[in-house]
Structures are given as structure tokens and as C-alpha cells.
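Researcher: We're teaching a course module on how sequence relates to structure. For the next exercise, students receive a sequence and then see the predicted structure as C-alpha cells, so they can try to spot secondary structure elements on their own. Here is the exercise chain.
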Amino acid sequence: MSLKRAEHFISEEEYLQGEQEAETRHELINGEVYAMAGANENHNLVSGNIFSEVKSRLKGSPCKTFMSDMKVKAGGDFFYPDVMVVCEEDNEHEYYKSAPILIVEVLSESTRKFDKTSKRLIYQNIPSLEEYAIIEQERCEIEVFRRKDHWQSTYYYLGDDVFFASLDVSVSVEDIYYQVVNADIIKYFA
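Model: And here is the predicted structure for the students to work with:
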């Protein structure tokens, strides 16, 4: 998903009101609104797979798993993570969460640099956040940053299980890439 820059600054209240009426989703970053473009097939498959795998493993727990229509508030910024898990009471607002324990972003060419740098640093300042996962869609590579590891990353590839320590949940990389077609998948299953 790519972001298109708006031309004026708005308040959080204006942004939240506008999002309820907007046909296109927008993120609010430093008072500026950015329109979000749609995602491709692989992006949707990876997002849906990680959502369903994590959600099914958390059944019976107090944790709630959200997909890309739920916003996260990080300081004064608002984003739409591809997947987010909240395990504590977080009812400040019905249209966003502010206390996620895990955030997952599926990378695209247009957002890769921002998601791996600026957005990562913004997310790391969310007090409740324990893990931030970045998932490539055009190759099978998952990078997980953990607070307990001082935000150093760990990489996972086909044949590995990704362990989300904050949730005590493991998901195989193959399950995350189920039905995805890319060069790594073709080579791995040949």
C-alpha cells in the first residue's frame, strides 16, 4: 500500500471524524493525512493468513486480534496495521486501539522503507508493544523486533516457526505464506 500526501494539517478530532465518513482509508502522521492505496493479492493472502493463524491460537484468551480496518494510535499518529493484537482492556475509542502487544505489517515496495524505519520507531514508543513483525510478500522473509531484545530483530524463513513470545504463540512460515505465489515458494515446494 502506498501513501499519498495531503496538503494541510488537521487535528486528531478532525482526522477521526473524517475517517468515519471517508471512502478511502488515511493515516495521520505528524498532523498530515496520507491516503492509503489498495493491496495486491499476495499482501491480502499474507495478512489474512497471519490474522487467522494468530486469532485461532488465541481462542479462549483475553487477547483480541484485529485486521487492517482497525487503527492504532501511536502518540499523536494513527496507522492501520495489517494485523494487531491487544491483550489488555483498550476501550478508549471504538475506532482505534492504543495498547497493542503485537503489530504486524506486510511490506510493499512503496511502504518498505517507511515501515522498516520511521514507522518502526514510532511503534516502538507504544508502551504496551512487545513485538513488531515485518513480513515480506515478494519473498519469504519475516523480521520480528522484540522489546525484550532491545528491539534487535530476528529473521525467519521457510522451514522455520515464528515464535511470538508476547503471545506464547508459534506459527510456521509456511502457514503465513499459504497460497502465496512468489519465487521462494516455487523453489521451496519444487
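Model: If you want an answer key for the exercise: The mean pLDDT is 92. Residues 75 and 150 are 20 Å apart (CA to CA).
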